[in-house]
Amino acid sequence: MASFEETQVVPTELLIARVMQIHASVSKLESLRPSKPINTLLTQLVKLCSLPSSIEISTLPNEVQLIRQSLIKLCGIAEGFLELEFSTFLTNVPHPLNHLDLFPYYNNYVLLAGLEHNILAENGVEQPKKVAFIGSGPLPLTSIIMATHHMQTTYFVNIDIDESANHVAGQIVGSDLELERRMKFETFDVMEVKEMLEEFDIIFLAALVGMSKEEKGKIIAHLRKYMKAGGVLLVRSANGARAFLYPAVEEEDLEGFEVLSIFHPTNEVINSIVLARKPMFG
Fold first, then answer.
1. Record's family (predicted)?
2. 130-134, strands of its sheet edge to edge
3. Average of pLDDT values for 244-265?
């Protein structure tokens, strides 16, 4: 039998069976903190979900949808632990920003930020004055990569619900005076942020802010209400099998926005990119 790598397109039944196996194994672990068992399982899952497949997430039976929702939550918790462990390590070494590439998924963030910058540029948004990143976490790689490589004059506001995540992220950025001048961290639930949203030319919404379709929809509607007219919203999504890792956002979830671009990567980048603009009028 051919291996996954040798298969042109992974059969849907095989993909679902393997995903369910991995979910069962992850669910049995005592902890989701970085360790050999969780690292191995999540690496297998990411590789599996990155392979070409013809799976249609929206048509999956209810029991598979429930497994998918559970898996997204488990992966999100594990990702948070991994980022926190790594960012805490960075705060204890000299010049932490010189060691970001030690993070296992650093290259993925570099590629994703490059794609996002290109898509923004193609839609006439290249050097915004002020940007918000909602759900920046303890390791704000996108903001750091964007600020240092793509938007060298932009001011970044990182918004996260977790004060301890903001504290450690602020320590990492605080090691570089120039970057610290252009970046701040705010601890808020995004649903409590209102007037401040009018300040931003671009709002990035992290993939794991709003784990369910309903939650994500409420957050997008809230941003639509309070962000400035003509402002741009960049939502990270997931397509096909990658939607076992992150929530999927469809065009119909962006009611009231003008959708400018939807991009689904086929390489090692996991997140899809949905770019939308709040109309100037209406």
1. Belongs to the nicotianamine synthase (NAS)-like family.
2. 183-187, 155-160, 130-134, 202-205, 232-237, 272-277, 258-263
3. 95
